[in-house]
Each structure stands twice: as C-alpha cells, then as structure tokens.
Amino acid sequence: MRMLRPLTLVWPGLPWLWLRGSAAGLVLALAFAVVLDMAILSTWIWSEFLELPIVIGLWVAAAVIWMAATVSAALAFPAPLQTGHDAAADALFTAARDAYLARDWLAAETKLRSLLVVRPTDGEAQLLLGTLLRRVGRLPEARTALEKLARSDAGAPWRSAITRELGQIDSPTILSIDDGVPTAAPAERAA
User: For the chain, where are the alpha helices, taking DSSP H only?
Assistant: First the structure.
C-alpha cells in the first residue's frame, strides 16, 4: 500500500483527499476535473463553439493547476495515518486523560490536540476532547467535535457515549452540591 501512495500525486488534490479526507483536496480535485473536462470538450467535441484563444487558455489553466498542485503536494506530502498504537501516542493519551481527571483542562486539551495531529482517527481521543469542551462550556465546539466523531468510522465503538454527550449539550443539568440531585440549568430555572 505504501508503494501506491505516491500515485496520488498524479491528480491534483488527490493526496489530501485520499490520504486525509480533506475538503480542500476535494475542491481542488473537482476544480481540476472541471477545467480538464472543459479543455477536452472544447478541443475535440465542441470545437466550433469556442475561439482558439479560449481553448488554449483552458489547456494552460489545466497545466498550471496540475503543476502547482503536484509541486505543492510533493513538497508537503501527507504522512501516512497511524492506525496502530505506538508507545509515544499512548503515553500522550494517558497524560491527557490524567490531566482531564485532575481538571487541568488546558493541559488536557493541549495534549489531546497534539495527539490528534499525530493520530487523527483516534476515536477515544476525539471523544475525550468533545467531553472536555462540553465540560468547560465551549458547547458549539463540543457539538462540532462530537458530531464529526459520530459521522466517522472511529466513532462506531463510541456511539452511545457520543449520544449521551450530545444529550448533555442539548439539555445541560448541574448537580446541586447539597444533595447531588440533578437540577435544571440556570437558564432553564429562570424561564
């Protein structure tokens, strides 16, 4: 499989789309496809509809997009995703989990984001980040992170936890210090 990775350089945007699932890679791949299709159609199929300078411009645009995207991708070729567990990533997750349990939110978030750069498909780290964001009150970010995880394959083992976290975002409750019984959130009590 590693031998096939460089073949993604043939089509602009494909390295980022195929190897990382990048939306920008999709846009670039589609833009190149449209320009190339228009150049081919205007040259061999609809040759009487467009002037020669426009046809040449389409071919030049296709060549420029291809060259710029290929050079750009070759210089910043995405590293393969790590699917297995390595000791450094596991140690980073353990440190993030320990910081979360110690309520050191900043350290936990920093470590989780570092881990997700190295291993972006780690569902457990994504879930912990979503939970952390909910706990610190960054609800829109938490919702986005959890919904992204729910749509991915990495979220499959965590479906019930994701649903529970999203439910917590939709109807937040707080625990009363006196009796430990959930009560309505302050916004709901005022209504």
Answer: 14-20, 23-40, 52-75, 87-101, 105-118, 123-135, 139-151, 159-170, 186-190
Radius of gyration from C-alpha coordinates of the chain: 24
- The CATH number of the domain holding residue 157 is 1.25.40.10
Q: Which residues contact 149 (CB under 8 A, 6 or more apart)?
A: 123, 126, 127, 130, 155, 158, 162
Prediction pTM value: 0.52
Residues of the domain holding 145: 87-173
Calculate the CA 80 to chain-centre distance: 15
Give residue-wise pLDDT tens across range 83-107. 556 788 889 999 999 999 999 999 9
